[in-house]
Amino acid sequence: MVSLFILRPLRVSLPRCGSQQIRQSAAKAAGARRSFSSYLVTPQELADALKKAPPSPISSEPRVIPLCASWFLPNDPEGRTGIDVFREKRIPKARFFDLDKVIDKHSEYPHMLPNPKSFAAAMSELGIRHEDTVVVYDSKELGIFSAPRVGWTLKTFGHPRVHILNNFRLWVEQGLPTESGNVWTVECGTYPIPEMDESKVAHFEDVREVALDYNKEGAEGVQILDARSYGRWAGKDPEPRPGLSSGHMPGSINIPFDAVLDPQTKAFLPVDKLKQVFKEKGVDPTKPIISSCGTGVTACVLETALNEAQYGSPETRKVYDGSWTEWAQRVKPSDSLIRTVEQQSE
Predict the structure, then answer these.
(1) Cα–Cα distance for residue pair 237/235, rounded to 1 Å
(2) Which residues pair with 223 in a beta bridge?
(3) Residue of 81, 117, 118 lying closest to 4 (CA atoms)
(4) Residue 164 and residue 301 in contact, taking contact as beta carbons nearer than 8 Å
(5) What is the DSSP code (8-state) at residue 64?
(6) Which contacts of 83-88 are long-range, i.e. CB under 8 A and separated by 24 or more positions?
(7) CA distances to 95, 220, 274, 283, 328 from 279, in Å
(8) What distance separates the 2 farthest-apart alpha carbons in the chain?
(9) Is the dihedral of CA 145, 245, 252, 107 positive or negative?
């Protein structure tokens, strides 16, 4: 009888991971038998790496762990869920990262980053070690959607070797191995409690200051990118979450996340085309960039595209964790910080 692996609270004592431990773990991981040349990994590169460093629980060497991060919007027309498509078809020995559970459970906003202890507990239950190479991937249905958010989360908590598969749809089309059905419970580990890299995260107060300074003389010129659809950004289409106003932040640049993906394969575009997308949208690579979306998920698609294109400095790029769901509920009507295209044309 097989049992389905689902995240549940861990009651274990987790060690804290200080800067020296992180450096030692990173150094060990650097000696892994397989290293990828880019943050984005091709299906064949991952398949080859899994042959050389499989996710075996008995191996003491750094392993390659495929991590499924499939997730669908709450108003998905087919009612799909991440765990359903994970059961249906996945990379052999993959683990499932539940984007609706590994969050700040005390926040009223969805998908906010968990605290370091909760993150370590989730990684421990997934059986992932600090020295493992983790390759995050999406569903074949969407191609690229939520995996970049999970990859960004791992990087924000200092996991030394994180990559994104580009992508599982191509993996399936190329006839690489898959499995289906329920999965065996993985052997839990003890992941050290990390420190969060706050430099990667934009908070409500940060973004509000940028919005209030928009078009003011002497402002820093921070750019806000919005990965939602044009209709939601323009204020013409409803948000997928009932009761939430649509529209956009003053001065934000609308780049729907699928603009950086190939229309057929839903994989990331080549570097030259990514640069062209950002240039045509008027994004200045010399100025700070904050990526946003509905709940901080597809904002990470833009951040990953910026990273791949080396567009903008990594030190001045952030992701707005709460994104539009937090923004639309927290701004005051008197601030006039929710704009629509109709208002701009008046």
Answers:
(1) 6
(2) 289
(3) 81
(4) no
(5) E
(6) 83/6, 85/139, 85/140, 85/141, 87/4, 87/180, 87/181, 87/182, 87/183, 88/180
(7) 37, 20, 9, 6, 28
(8) 67
(9) negative
Rounded CA-CA distance 79/75 in Å is: 7
Cα–Cα distance measured from residue 149 to residue 299, given in angstroms and rounded to the nearest whole number: 8
Amino acid at 333: P
Mean pLDDT of all residues belonging to the chain? 89
| Pairwise CA distance, residues 98 & 113, whole Å | 13
Q: Are strands 95-96 and 64-68 parallel, antiparallel or unpaired?
A: parallel
Q: What pTM was computed for the model? A: 0.89
Give strand pairing partners of 90: 179
pLDDT score of 10 more than 90:
no
**pLDDT: which is higher, 222 or 242:** 222
What local confidence, expressed as pLDDT, does residue 274 receive? 98
Map residue 275 onto helix, strand or coil.
Answer: helix
Residue ranges of E strands in the chain? 40-41, 64-68, 95-96, 133-137, 162-165, 201-202, 223-226, 253-254, 289-292, 317-320
List the structure tokens of 106: 């005390």
Annotated catalytic residue: which of 17, 68, 293, 300? 293
Q: Give the contacts of 236 (CB within 8 A, at least 6 positions apart).
A: 246, 340, 341, 342
Q: Is the pLDDT of residue 90 over 70?
A: yes
β partners of residue 137: 68
- Encoding tokens for residue 18? 């200080």
> What is the model's pLDDT at position 186?
84
162 strand-pairing partners: 134
- Quick: pLDDT tens for 275-329: 999 999 999 999 999 999 999 999 999 999 999 999 999 999 999 999 999 999 9
293 in active site: yes
Q: Phi and psi for 175 in degrees, rounded to 5?
A: 75, 25
